[in-house]
Amino acid sequence: VIAKVARAFSGSNDMGRVGVALSLHGDGIAKLILYKTKSQVLASVVLTEANASVIERESYIQFYADDKCFWSLRFDLDADEQAIIQALRKYDLPLACDSAASSSSSPSISDQDNKPEKDVEKKTTTPQLQLQTPQPQPRARLSPNVSTTHRQSEERPLVEDVLMTPVSRAVSHSHSSNLLPLRSEEDEIHDNSLIVSKRRGDSGKEMDKQMDTILQAMHRLVSGASSSTPLKANHQITMAAGSENSHESEDELIELEQKLLNLKRENRTLLKSLRAKDQALEELRLSSSALVEKNKALNQQNAILLATMASKYEQANSSSSSCLNCEQSATLISVLKR
User: Fold this and answer.
1) Whole-angstrom Cα distance, residue 73 to residue 55?
2) Tens digits of per-residue pLDDT, 174-204?
3) Can you tell me whether residue 2 is helix, strand or coil?
4) Top-confidence range, 23-27, 169-173, 185-189
5) Can you say how many angstroms the Cα of residue 67 is from the centroid of all Cα atoms in its chain?
6) For residue 290, is it within any domain?
7) Which residue ranges have biased composition labelled Low complexity (predicted)?
8) Quick check: helix, strand or coil at residue 13?
9) If you average pLDDT over every residue of the chain, what do you get?
10) Which of 109-118, 256-265, 268-277, 298-307 bottoms out in mean pLDDT, i.e. has the lowest?
């Protein structure tokens, strides 16, 4: 009917990825089969029997096989799991749902139902809190032992006003506090003028010091620039000389490379000529050896002819008949011997 791929667990052993197939036979038998290959079946369960059932969990399904082994299947895709479950329901095969999943889903629904009520309660309580906020009360007088900085931080108004603050003193047994006597405006003006004159004197001295430092810095810059000009000129001269030397060395290198190429070409031509001469010498050797052999053969033939002629001459001399041309034949024989 349907076949999918899932990861199988036999008890606590991971069996890897297996094939899950739901098959229906003609006699009304339905089987759930786990297999690695077509010939290797891991487990099977007949779902039409009374005790057989498939348990649907939150993210996997479980069942007891015919060999009483407990198997768990986890599908890679939710669609594959839903396809198997829908096929089981379509053919009215035993499928049991996990109660823990349903119970875990019911509290979530109840929590979702309670959330709007809590939100409504919060919304209704916030206006009451706003209405119940207390009105500002008049501030109590501070004791004289409180410092003026703390008092200013707590009692700073929105608009800056001139306030007369009492000086903190040790608390007496009668808890009485006295204010400092106010100074006159003339005394304050006289003090301010003294402060201004002191500041002017100090500022004048500071300005003189700053001018001295600026002049010293300018003098250093001028002296540094004047001393750096001959150094720059020397540097430029050395750079120009170095550039000329580099150009000359580059030209020399180019000339040497050209000479090297020419020498290589001459060497190649000489090698070719030497090879040709070697080949000619080899040919001469071969031809000379052939001529020597021919000369040997001719010498042998000449020796044979001389021997025959000498034998004929001896036969002629030994015969009784006289030869008319004896002198001529003798001269010829001597020439041939030479």
Assistant:
1) 10
2) 444 444 444 555 555 555 555 555 555 566 6
3) strand
4) 23-27
5) 54
6) no
7) 101-110, 125-134
8) strand
9) 72
10) 109-118
Closest by Cα among 35, 22, 34 to 92: 22
Q: Could you give the angle at which helices 326-337 and 185-318 cross, rounded to 10 degrees?
A: 160
pLDDT score of 188: 54
Q: How far apart are CA 212 and CA 204, in angstroms?
A: 12
In whole angstroms, give the CA distance from residue 328 to residue 322. Answer: 14
Q: How many domains does the structure of the chain reveal?
A: 1
Classify residue 18 by burial, with Cβ atoms within 10 Å: 0-12, 13-18, 19+: buried
Write out the residue range of the structural domain in which residue 98 sits: 2-105
| 51 occurs within a structural domain | yes
Separation between Cα atoms, residue 80 and residue 2, nearest integer Å = 10
> Residues 278-317, buried b or exposed e (16+ Cβ, 10 A)?
eeeeeeeeeeeeeeeeeeeeeeeeeeeeeeeeeeebeeee
Rounded-to-integer distance, Cα 336 and Cα 315, Å = 18
Distance between CA atoms of 230 and 193, rounded to whole angstroms?
56
Q: Is 76 part of a structural domain of the chain?
A: yes
How far is it, in rounded angstroms, from Cα 129 to Cα 201? 64
- How far apart CA 213 and CA 218 sit, in angstroms, is 9
Structure tokens at 326: 């004896």
Of residues 40, 43, 35, the one with CA closest to residue 17: 35
- In angstroms, the first-to-last Cα distance of the chain is 125
Q: In the block, which residue shows the tokens 């809190």?
A: 129
CA dihedral 145, 146, 148, 152 (to 10 degrees): -150
Output the domain CATH number for residue 81: 2.30.29.30
Dist. CA 69–CA 10, nearest whole Å: 7
The helix, strand and coil proportions of the chain, stated in percent and rounded to the nearest 5, come to: 60, 15, 25
C-alpha to C-alpha distance for 93 and 69, rounded to whole angstroms: 20
- In a domain, residue 14? The reply is yes
Each residue's pLDDT tens digit, 278-306: 999 999 999 999 999 999 999 999 999 99
- pLDDT tens for 31-58 read 899 999 888 899 999 988 888 889 988 8
